[in-house]
Design goal:
- The protein has a 3-stranded antiparallel beta sheet with strand order 1-3-2.
- It is built from 6 helices and 3 strands, in the order ααβααββαα.
- It is about 60% helix and about 15% strand.
- The protein has about 120 residues and is an alpha+beta fold.
Length: about 120
């Protein structure tokens, strides 16, 4: 359940899910749509206003709770991907509607004091 996540991780996960949905709607296959590159890529592409260390910490939380998969090397996460568990929970929560995901992300962002 998303309730076990910090607000930071909820925001990152919902932002990743929005990107996943946009990729799928563009005709990109499911496997490629789930992939997000490295934590540096996630920081630069989705969370540039966050500190890199905060992106790393949220990714670690999401991996621990099995929402994300990754390969770890040199204290960095690479080959980050949304796990089917995350997609299934987010499909149930948001019904694959990007507007609903955006509304949720905006509400979460409002309660994160530093963003």
């Amino acid at each position: 359940m998303l309730d076990e996540l910090t607000n930071d991780s909820k925001f990152l996960l919902s932002s990743m899910y929005k990107e996943y949905l946009q990729k799928r709607k563009s005709g990109i296959d499911r496997n490629k749509s789930r992939k997000f590159g490295s934590e540096i890529d996630l920081h630069d592409d989705l969370m540039p206003e966050w500190l890199q260390a905060d992106v790393h910490d949220s990714i670690a939380e999401l991996i621990k709770l099995k929402y994300l998969g990754s390969i770890t090397g040199d204290n960095k996460f690479t080959f980050i991907m949304l796990n089917p568990k995350a997609i299934a929970e987010l499909e149930t929560t948001f019904k694959d509607k990007i507007d609903t995901v955006l509304d949720y992300a905006a509400k979460i962002k409002d309660v994160i004091p530093f963003v």
